[in-house]
Amino acid sequence: MKTTQPRDKPNVIPETFPPPQISIWRHQHILDLDSFTKEEIDLVFEITDAMMEVLGREIKKVPTLRGTTVATVFYEPSTRTRASFELAAKNLSTDVVNLDIPKSSVTKGESFLDTLRTLQALGVDVIVLRHSQSGAPYLAAQHLDISIINGGDGWHAHPTQALLDLYTLRRHFGDLTGLKVVIIGDILHSRVARSNIWGMSIMGCKVVLCAPPTLLPRELDNFIIRCHLSGISKEYKLEAALQEADVIMPLRLQFERQQSRLLPSLREYIQLYQLNSKRLSLAKPNALVLHPGPINEDVEISPEVAHSAQSVIEEQVTNGVAVRMALLYLITRGKR
Ligand code: CP
Fold first, then answer.
1. Stated pTM of the model
2. What fold does the segment set 161-312 form as a domain?
C-alpha cells in the first residue's frame, strides 16, 4: 500500500533509524553468507523494513548516501541484480556508474584488477561485481581498499539474492525456524542454491535439495559435514521431497555452465522434475513458490504455477531493491 508524504517534510528515513543493534555490523564486503550470523541477517531485515517504507512513498528517494558512488561491473548478463542495485543506489541518492564491459578497455586487454583499480582511482566507494569465475569478488576484495559486493560469481555464491529470498519468506512466515524449503533442479551449477543453503541453515530452515544425481554436487555430503550445516538433506524423488513443504524453489537448468550432457533428455527432466500444479498440490496448501529468475517456463516450472496465487516471484524482485538499499546503507556507513 502506498503512503503519501507531506510535501513540507524532509524526505528521510524514519527518525527511529538506524536501530541500536547496527553496531554488530562488521562487514566491509558482502562476498557470501558463510560469514554472516543470524543476528546480522536479522539486522539486514530490520533495515530492509525501513527501506520498504521509503519505497512505499510517493517520492521513493532519500538523501542518505549523497556523496557516495557505486559502480556495477557485470562480466555476465543480468536483468534483476544489476537493475535493482542501480535503482537501490539511486533511491539513496548515490551516484551510479554502470561499466559496460563490451565497450570498456577490457576489450583492449586491460586486466580484471586494473579495471577495478581504475574505478577505485575514479572515486568509486562500492563495486557490485558479477563474474563467471568463482572467487573473482574475493580477489577484488584482497587487492582493493573499497567495498566489494558479490553480484554472483560462477557457481559459487549470490548472497544478495539469498538475502532477498530470505526476506521474502520472513514477510510471509515471520520466524523462519523449522520451515521446510525444497530447492529443485540444477543445484550443481547454482550459486543461488549455495548461498541459500548457508542463509537458510543459519536461519533454522530445513532444506531439501531435490535433483537427479548428476545435478547434485558430488561433494555435497562432505560439504554439509565439514561446514557444520544443519537441516540440509537431499532427495532424488520430487514427489517425496514435496510432502509437507512450506516453500518450493525450482531452479533454471544452467546449460551455459554444463560442460557435458548431464541429463538423458530435457523431456525426461520435465516429466520427473517440473513443478506443475499436480506436484504443487503435494506441498502444504499455503506453500509459497519462489524462483530467483530468469524463468524458463514449461521447463523447470509450468506457466500456471509461475503465475499462480502461491507464486511470489515478482515480489522477490520488488523486495530485492529494498534489500540492496539496506546492504548499500550498511556497507557505506561511516564513509559519509
Ligand atoms: N536472479 C538473478 O541473479 O537474476 P539476473 O541474472 O537477472 O540478475
1. 0.94
2. Rossmann fold (3.40.50)
